[in-house]
Write a structure and sequence with these properties.
Number of helices: 2
Shape: elongated
CATH architecture: Irregular
Strand content: 15-25%
Structural class: alpha+beta
Number of domains: 1
Number of strands: 3
Order of helices and strands: EEEHH
Oligomer: single chain
Strand order of the largest sheet: 2-1-3
Length: about 60
């Protein structure tokens, strides 16, 4: 294999807005994110399905369900 072809892959810290800290490796270094698996509504089970302006009812009325 050729030498010096791979970039540095140091340990980095990813910080979420909720306070969660994740230790991993990255070529980019430390960075922050807005949302992670601990605070995302899909993974926490707090997701709400929003029926804006009665779209489901309009669909059912239009197509006869």
């Amino acid at each position: 294999m050729k030498e010096n072809t791979h970039p540095d892959y140091p340990v980095c810290t990813i910080k979420c807005a909720c306070g969660n800290v994740i230790e991993t490796r990255s070529t980019k270094g430390d960075f922050t994110i807005d949302i992670c698996a601990k605070c995302h509504p899909f993974y926490t089970g707090k997701q709400k399905l929003v029926d804006s302006a009665g779209r489901v009812e309009r669909f059912n009325k239009k197509y006869g369900r």
